[in-house]
């Protein structure tokens, strides 16, 4: 995978004002030849994201929150697989999603008995990428990400309470999972760079930013969410291809309801892979 020069080995001499933390080189197949990320030993404070984003960017390091989840699994235990990871820029979001859709959607949400015009509209045919929303929020997407990180870290008893700050060598937020060889979606896709190609497309169309990673979960801020039901339904097809478990194994178990309740005007997207 093509990457930025990795500043993490020289982090101690960088002059960054960091809390106590650890460099992680542990992978599924043993130690990697260089650190994949740094993360703090304790929970993040609400202002940490903005401070580390400003300080780390000059070194090619981007912030992300990491969550131990209900099983208290931190990055050393994430079975990271950088050796399986390619470069996100080598993949096209539309092609990636079309392949997933063909594999999963025809059985799960397609209508095998549809004919004629009805068949053309059936979920079994990949509808293509959704157009960008007609209206934007006007908020800077990086500020939106910082705002979500602040909300999460301000609530230690919340759903992501105890999340810790991490720094990753990456050019853009969408590439963070690939930069560490994240294996959260392994049962869906073993090369996370293909999913990062989709995240890049969402960055461009929806001002999305990766804010939190867990063992098999991802939380994304959305600076430009769908504002009409039509826009949300078009995007829902992408979400199904990207993460079928969000619909197949999570209420409301219906793509149209998911579009209305989870995507329409929603500034946070969450994903979980079984």
Description:
The protein has nine helices and nine strands. It has a seven-stranded mixed β-sheet with strand order 1-4-6-5-7-8-9. Strands 2-3 form a two-stranded antiparallel ribbon. It has helices spanning 48-57, 93-108, 116-121, 141-153, 176-180, 192-206, 229-242, 245-248, 255-263; strands spanning 21-24, 26-27, 30-31, 37-40, 61-66, 164-169, 208-213, 217-222, 268-272. It starts with 20 loop residues before the first strand and ends with a strand. The model is unreliable at 110-122 (pLDDT under 50). It has 274 residues and is of the alpha+beta class. It is globular, with a radius of gyration of 19 Å.
What's this model, at a glance?
By secondary structure, the chain is of the alpha+beta class. Helix content is 34%, strand content 15%. The protein has helices at 48-57, 93-108, 116-121, 141-153, 176-180, 192-206, 229-242, 245-248, 255-263, and strands spanning 21-24, 26-27, 30-31, 37-40, 61-66, 164-169, 208-213, 217-222, 268-272.
């Amino acid at each position: 995978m093509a990457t930025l020069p990795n500043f993490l080995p020289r982090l101690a001499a960088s002059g960054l004002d960091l809390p106590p933390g650890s460099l992680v080189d542990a992978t599924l197949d043993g130690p990697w030849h260089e650190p994949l990320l740094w993360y703090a030993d304790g929970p993040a404070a609400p202002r940490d994201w903005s401070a580390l984003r400003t300080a780390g960017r000059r070194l090619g390091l981007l912030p992300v929150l990491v969550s131990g989840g209900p099983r208290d699994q931190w990055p050393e235990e994430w079975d990271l697989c950088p050796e399986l990871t390619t470069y996100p820029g080598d993949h096209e979001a539309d092609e990636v999603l079309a392949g997933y859709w063909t594999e999963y959607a025809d059985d799960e949400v397609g209508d095998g008995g549809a004919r004629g015009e009805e068949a053309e509209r059936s979920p079994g045919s990949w509808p293509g990428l959704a157009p960008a929303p007609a209206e934007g929020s006007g908020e800077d997407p990086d500020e939106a990400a910082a705002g979500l990180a602040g909300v999460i870290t301000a609530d230690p008893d919340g759903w992501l309470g105890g999340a810790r700050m991490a720094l990753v060598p990456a050019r853009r937020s969408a590439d963070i999972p690939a930069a560490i060889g994240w294996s959260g979606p392994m049962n869906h896709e073993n090369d996370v760079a293909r999913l990062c190609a989709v995240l890049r497309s969402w960055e461009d169309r929806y001002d999305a930013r990766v804010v939190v990673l867990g063992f098999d979960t991802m939380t994304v801020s959305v600076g430009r969410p769908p504002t009409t039901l039509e826009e949300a339904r078009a995007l829902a097809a992408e979400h199904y291809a990207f993460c079928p478990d969000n619909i197949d194994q999570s209420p409301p178990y219906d793509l149209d309801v998911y579009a209305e309740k989870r995507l329409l005007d929603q500034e946070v997207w969450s994903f979980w892979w079984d």
